[in-house]
Amino acid sequence: MTYTKRFDGRKFDETRPMIAKVGIIPRADGSAMFQAGDTIAYAAVYGPRDLHPKFMQNPSTGILRVHYNMMPFSGHGDRVRPGGGRRSKEICMVMQNALTPVLDLKDYPNAVVDVFIEFPQTDAGTRCAGLNAASMALADAGLTMKDLVCAIAAGRVEDKVVIDLNYLEDSHEDGCDIPMAILPSTGEVTLLQMDGEISAEMLSDALKLANNTAKQIYDVQKVALKEKFTQVKK
Q1: I need a surface site. Which of 22, 35, 150, 162 has the fewest CB within 10 A?
Q2: How far is residue 209's CA from residue 203's CA, in Å, rounded to a whole number?
Q3: DSSP letters of 19-75?
Q4: In terms of C-beta density within 10 A (0-12 exposed, 13-18 middle, 19 or more buried), how is residue 11 classed?
Q5: Distance (Å) of CA 222 to CA 13, 156, 170, 186, 225
Q6: Domain map of the chain by residue range?
Q7: CA distances (Å), 116 to each of 32, 100, 113, in order?
Q8: Residue 70 has what pLDDT?
Q9: Residue 174 near residue 198 (C-beta atoms within 8 A)
Q10: 161 bridge partner residues
Q11: Would you give the end-to-end CA distance of the chain in angstroms?
Q12: pLDDT at residue number 76
């Protein structure tokens, strides 16, 4: 089959409109919002703070914990079950692994940094939007970071390679979804998952497209951070 036109009219290499804001939750140590089309992620950072119970502490470094939650009526289809489940736990672990490489928590032994990510509205790409928001929130918290994390999903819909899949594309019966997280300064990949089948040639094209798009996300993140700190100085 031939995918001639995207469901929402975008070009195959075009992202959904992106909006980013930083410092939106006053009582958090760091916070951010990242929106891609109809997917909205809020991230709040608390810590470093003492980790309890103590048997979970690491005397040589602080640890990162990620909490991922979709609100009950945030997405398509059935109501999301409150409290998370197996999928939610898996995504928490995946996001934690994607964010940890940019953080240096050695100055905070026995401590924890908690990142809470909430989705009031979703249309696919939640883990990518959540990572983008979490990365900005960690920077807003003033933690030492070697880079921001920029996440985007590339993939295949029928015979075309596309970027930033929406729900209809993500759930297409003849497709493949590839969420990725990239460090823009080095090109290092901290997350790469695949759901579906894709040829080696199309996979190569998808990875190149995701890498180029990550730079666009990086620009959006930097503008949001600069705007927040410019307002603070005033």
Answers
A1: 35
A2: 10
A3: EEEE---TTSSEEEEEEETTEEEEEEEEEEEE-SSGGG--TTS-EEEEEEEE-TTSS
A4: exposed
A5: 22, 29, 28, 16, 5
A6: 18-228
A7: 11, 15, 10
A8: 86
A9: no
A10: 156
A11: 56
A12: 60
pTM of the model: 0.93
Q: Identity (one letter) of the amino acid at 35?
A: Q
- pLDDT category at 230 given cuts 50, 70, 90 is confident
Q: Write down the CATH number for the domain with range 18-228.
A: 3.30.230.70
Judged against a pLDDT cut of 70, whether residue 186 lies above it is answered with yes
Q: Of 23-27, 33-37, 75-79, 115-119, give the lowest mean pLDDT range.
A: 75-79
- Cis peptide bond N-terminal to 53, omega within 30: yes
| Phi and psi torsions of 71, nearest 5° | -65, 150
Token readout for 135 is: 């990365």
CB 167 within 8 A of CB 125: no
3-state helix, strand, coil in the chain (%, to 5): 30, 30, 40
Q: How far apart are CA 72 and CA 125, in angstroms?
A: 17
In this predicted structure, the answer to whether residue 195 has a pLDDT above a threshold of 70 is yes
Residue 150, token pair as written in the block: 């920029």
Q: Which one-letter DSSP state was computed for residue 14?
A: -
Give the DSSP H or E segment for 94: helix 86-99
Measured between alpha carbons, how far is residue 90 from residues 66, 77, 218 in Å?
A: 11, 21, 25
CA–CA separation, 14 and 78 (whole Å): 29
